[in-house]
């Protein structure tokens, strides 16, 4: 049984195929084709417009302006379609036959280096070592950063738990929902005590009217049995 070797072919866009020759020539072959197309299509359009004006001058009594304009538009459209087909073939011919480089051609920038410099080679090795050390330092810093981030996340978690515990204690013990509310309650209580203390200090104990504020309790009379 004979096995046939199948050769895999890869199609390359024409824009990619012209890159190497463009580097050598200093301009893109397809750009040259586009410039030619633009010049030709512009002159053809002007010629058709002049042709339409001549028809309008000579046959204005037989044809309306709209019909002549429709005719010129039709001619432009057909010529443009035909010109596009022609230049598609011209592009392939230009790139593959005229402005074409043999695959064996190598530009100067792509030639292999034939000279060897020990000093240059050592400089490259030193740079590789330098960047390798920098990468190691960056990896170490990254590890330390991740560890510190884990510690911070743990602290944040503990703070959240402490906050929940404090909130629950405030509600269960003091009947308030926040520290601010507790502080306001303590502040109000201290103010009340301070006002009471001030009022007591301002009372004149020698004033007979003070006794009327807190009269002594009355003694109960005992009934004698007759």
Automatic annotation (TrEMBL):
<dbReference type="GO" id="GO:0051301">
    <property type="term" value="P:cell division"/>
</dbReference>
<comment type="similarity">
    <text>Belongs to the mis12 family.</text>
</comment>
<dbReference type="Pfam" id="PF05859">
    <property type="entry name" value="Mis12"/>
</dbReference>
<keyword id="KW-0131">Cell cycle</keyword>
<keyword id="KW-0137">Centromere</keyword>
<dbReference type="InterPro" id="IPR008685">
    <property type="entry name" value="Centromere_Mis12"/>
</dbReference>
<dbReference type="GO" id="GO:0051382">
    <property type="term" value="P:kinetochore assembly"/>
</dbReference>
<dbReference type="GO" id="GO:0005634">
    <property type="term" value="C:nucleus"/>
</dbReference>
<protein>
    <recommendedName>
        <fullName>Protein MIS12 homolog</fullName>
    </recommendedName>
</protein>
<dbReference type="GO" id="GO:0000070">
    <property type="term" value="P:mitotic sister chromatid segregation"/>
</dbReference>
<keyword id="KW-0498">Mitosis</keyword>
<dbReference type="GO" id="GO:0000444">
    <property type="term" value="C:MIS12/MIND type complex"/>
</dbReference>
<keyword id="KW-0995">Kinetochore</keyword>
<keyword id="KW-0175">Coiled coil</keyword>
<feature type="coiled-coil region">
    <location>
        <begin position="142"/>
        <end position="172"/>
    </location>
</feature>
<keyword id="KW-0158">Chromosome</keyword>
<keyword id="KW-0132">Cell division</keyword>
